[in-house]
Amino acid sequence: MLINNALDPPGNTTLPGTTYPSMPFVFVGDEAFALGEHLMRPYSSRGLSIARRVFNYRLTRARRVVECAFGILSNKWRILHSPIHLKLETAISAVKATCALHNFVRQRDGFNFEDSLSHSMESSIRSGVCGTTHGAAIRDHFTAYFMSPQGELPCQIQAI
Description:
The protein has 160 residues and is mainly alpha-helical. It is 42% helix and 5% strand. The chain has 4 helices and 4 strands. The strands form 2 sheets. A two-stranded antiparallel sheet has the order 1-2. A hairpin with a 2-residue loop joins strand 1 (2-3) and strand 2. Helix 1 packs across helix 3.
């Protein structure tokens, strides 16, 4: 959670089916963000190994899910189309209210969650900002996990 511009994420956890060291929860970002312990960005797009291409694919896939969800939410609730000019506590309540109302309306209208999981996954990898060596080590652990039997997706090699 972000409070007073300070990040207070949940504690580290072990990736499912592995004995990897405890991994942090992370935000997914694009090339504009610096790599960090709690912020993953894609590898630079030049000369990538298959494992790194898979990581970039998986990161892009996660970003697109978030972007699509926010797009759907903000199109229904206009308050999210511009900066929210409210006290922080009120803004947090307003965003939570839009999420709750959105979910209520979707359930009432018979929304099928499985349908929202299908979307195109074109690549949009560009080079940009670098990050920390600790962030790079965490990204490498995720990369290895995505290539392991426990973390791979059946379609990921064909998708890259």
